[in-house]
Design a protein that fits this description.
hydrolase activity, alpha/beta, hydrolase, Epox_hydrolase-like, eight-stranded mixed beta sheet, 313 residues
Length: 313
């Protein structure tokens, strides 16, 4: 089942390999209800769009969806640069090639996909037509780096500085991308047994581990983390110095036993969101871990519906 994809699980989805201005392609899956906002569901590390397989069936009768493969993660082309602005612009370009420029967009990003969304919301260009966002299990990138002063956080998130190192792709290839990815997925999933079983459905660990056995995926994902250590942080420091913050309604959903164990999420995010924009932080408890859309998809879908009904029109 390692060669399965979203369209092998759901025949109602359409697959697109869209040529974009970088010269590469963005692979994505879509479902169009014909009206309303487009939910842009963006995955994180070390995964693929496959992570939304449980959420899509819960939403597709009500919402239009665009589900991209992150550029550089082995299924979309490697981007010319790995910073979050470049990657976000390519995703929006792919989305608008299918749905046009007039459809409103609700950005729903997990992990790295949330970080791309954060960048896009701060830039908030009118042509993006992003009206609100849901960010899953992240604090701003700069805040994450600051947490490394805590030894426990340094151990828990050791992969951040490691993956940003130029040596990381070669070291992982020596370990074996398959074994590296499988070990990471086992390490970070939650303690809730029902959630852990749900996460593993559809041979998900095999799917991700096989994808990250590819040299292209290792190099592209490590470039993402390297940008997160340099260009992305520099941009966020400029934003904070010059008073640029998220100015769109934002919901942050996080794992209480994962992100919430290391960060005061509810206290951090107000520093990064304008007081004029609604911010809601929701901690999910009961031992559900980092991979919330896979471990507790019903709860995630419920929150998406609630948020989009208020801030998707």
């Amino acid at each position: 089942m390692a060669d399965s994809s979203l369209i092998t699980l759901d025949s109602s989805l359409k697959q697109h390999d869209t040529k974009v201005s970088s010269g590469g392609t963005v692979r994505a899956y879509s479902h169009d209800t014909g009206s309303g906002p487009v939910l842009c569901l963006v995955h994180g590390y070390p995964e693929s769009a496959y992570m939304w397989r449980h959420v899509i069936p819960l939403l597709k009768d009500k919402y239009t969806m665009y589900v991209p493969e992150l550029p550089g993660y082995g299924l979309s082309s490697t981007p010319p640069k790995a910073d979050k602005r470049t990657v976000g612009n390519l995703i929006i370009e792919g989305l608008q090639s299918i749905f046009g420029k007039d459809r409103r967009v609700v950005w729903i990003g997990h992990d790295r996909g949330g970080r791309v969304g954060h960048r896009m919301m701060v830039d908030n260009k009118p042509e993006y037509n992003i009206v609100s966002a849901m960010l899953l299990d992240i604090v701003p990138t700069t805040e994450q780096w600051r947490a490394f002063a805590n030894p426990a956080a340094s151990v828990a998130y050791f992969h951040w500085p490691f993956l940003a190192s130029p040596a990381a792709p070669q070291i992982i290839e020596q370990i074996g991308g398959y074994s590296w990815t499988k070990g990471n997925l086992e390490r970070i999933k939650g303690s809730n047994s029902t959630g852990a079983a749900k996460f593993q459905e559809n041979d998900a660990i095999e799917h991700y581990s096989t994808l990250f056995a590819k040299s292209e995926t290792l190099k592209g994902s490590c470039a993402d983390y390297a940008a997160g250590a340099f260009e992305d942080v520099q941009e966020q420091e400029k934003d904070q110095k010059e008073g640029r913050k998220v100015s769109l309604p934002t919901m942050v959903v996080y794992s209480g036993s994962n992100l919430g164990r290391m960060h005061d999420v509810d206290a951090i995010w107000p520093k990064w969101v304008s007081g004029e924009a609604e911010l809601r932080c929701v901690g999910i408890q009961d031992g559900f871990g980092h991979y919330l859309p896979e471990e507790c998809p019903e709860r995630v879908a419920e929150l998406i519906e609630e948020w989009v009904s208020k801030y998707g029109k």
